[in-house]
Structure formats: C-alpha cells, structure tokens
Amino acid sequence: MKSKKVATYGLLVALAFILSYIESLIQIPFAVPGIKLGLANLVVITALYSMGAKEAFVLSLIRILLVGFTFGNPSTMMFSLGGGLLSWALMSIFKWSKLFSIVGVSIIGGVSHNIGQILVAIFVVDNINLFYYLPFLLVSGVVTGTLIGILGAMIVKRIRNILR
Amino acid sequence: MKQITEQQKRKDDTSNQLIRKQDIILIGAVLFLGLIVFIVMQITKTEGSKVKIFIDNVEYKTLDLNIDMTEKVELDNGEWNLFEIKDGKVDMLDASCPDKICVNHKDIHYNTEDITCLPNKVVLKITGGEENEVDAVAN
C-alpha cells in the first residue's frame, strides 16, 4: 500500500512538472501578470479528489519548488507559493463544505491562485496598484477554473478507483 | 454487502453532478465582483502628467510625460528594461525578463496606472504633477 502511494506521488509530481513546463511554453495574448492557464492545478485537483487534502498540499508544494528551481527564480517561486497555498487552502475548504462540485472547487482554485500571486506581488514589489489587475484575474480564473474543473472531473472519475 | 457499495457509489455519482446550482452562483458572484471593481476603477481614473521609475522598490527617477524620449534602465545584475515616452504615454519597448509581460503590456497614461516587470523588479508608474512637486520639496 505504501509503495503504491509513493508511486502515485511520483507519477503526479512528474505530470504536474510537465504541465507546468507546457504552460510556460504557451504565450497568452492578453498578458496580465498572474494570469495562467493553471494546467498544473489539474494535478492538484486530481490529488485533492482521489487522494486527499494533505496529499494535494504535498504535491502542490513539491511541484512549486521543483518548477521554481528549474525554470524560475526565487521571486517567481514566491509568487507561485502565494498562489499555490491560497488556492490549495480555499479548494480544500470548498471541497470540505460539500456545497460545490469539482468545477466550483476548481474555479475557486483558479481565482484564488491568481489572487494569491498578486497579493505576494503587491507585497514584494510594494505596489498596491497591482490590485488593478483584479477584474482580469477574476474573469480569467473563472474561465480557466471551469475548463480545468471539467477536465479534472473526467480524470478523477477514471482514476479514483485505481488510486484508492 | 456488494449491493450497498454499489448503491453508495451511485449516490456519490449523482451528488458529484458536474456543474451544480452553487457553482453557477459562484461563477456569477466572482464575475459580478470583477465587474464592480472594474467600474470603480474606470470611474476613479484621471490623466497623469509624470512617470516614476522604481527599481527594487527604490525610486530611481521621475520623468515628464510631455517630453518624448527613450530610456534603457540597466540593473546591476545585467538585466535591463527599455521604455519610451511618446505623446504623453509610456510604453515598455523591450526587456531582458523571461516572461515579457511588461513588454506586451499596453502603453499607460492614467494616474496610478503602472507597468510592472516582476522578474526585474522594475516599475513604471504614472503620477500626477502636483503631488510630485510636493515630494520634490520634501526631498
């Protein structure tokens, strides 16, 4: 059982890592700091639903550290940490409340990931005006969150029984 | 026993219906919040007259928006940002940062608008004229 868990972690970390890399290759036309497709969130939400909140947290953290050291620098890693932790916390709470489906949980994940990044950015660059990006971040979070949520639902439905 | 788990599973499936009413409410609430913030921003914006350049949170210099010019900010670590002031607007032309978000950003001229290059920690920020003169006296 334990080795299965180790293998699952390895699999999901690798997947999240690759998705983060693919995401870094995709240029989004209307560039606003903080906007992301959130492909890696697909893995975090899959872990959240098929393994649990604790496992999702570990995965999210490992992914951010790995990607930060590989493709980013200390400051981009801090933004990712802010987004990743806030997003994990809110997704866990929303899932636990049982009010929302995986799509709703994914939406709050996408939105809070964007907001978390901008909060860290406001703190690091000491520029409160970054707050002005909020409307764009909210809308993009809803769009990407919905798509990731629908994809996540498909994945979770198929692999839940294998992972448990 | 098997039947119970089967039933349990079916119940799980229906309660895991893809998009629920609450999800739609959530989407509506987030979009509404975005709209409100956007409207407030549109109402409160005014034309600026100067641009302040910050490097790593420290004010580097202030330039007049009425004087057209191009300047390259070079940082100690070799990174750089090239920007232009033209027709009262500021635009980032090019930069050494990996994401180029600041370069793709549209030109700015409204008060408190800014272009932030997060990787290089370079911020171009529009300010009003009077406030700057007070600052200059205070300095």
TrEMBL record, chain A:
Q: Know the name of this protein? A: Gx transporter family protein
**Keyword set, alphabetical order:** Membrane, Transmembrane, Transmembrane helix
Superkingdom, taxonomy of origin = Bacteria
Task: List residues traversing the bilayer.
Answer: 103-125, 131-156
Report the source organism: Mobilitalea sibirica
Q: Does the keyword Transmembrane helix apply?
A: yes
Q: Which Pfam families match?
A: Hpre_diP_synt_I
Q: Give a yes or no for keyword Transmembrane helix in this entry.
A: yes
Lineage at the top is: Bacteria, Bacillati, Bacillota, Clostridia, Lachnospirales
TrEMBL record, chain B:
Question: What InterPro entries does this protein map onto?
Answer: NusG_2_sf
Q: Kindly list the residue ranges recorded as spanning the membrane.
A: 24-43
Listed name of the protein: NusG domain II-containing protein
In terms of Pfam families, this protein maps to: NusG_II
This protein's UniProt keywords:
Membrane, Transmembrane, Transmembrane helix
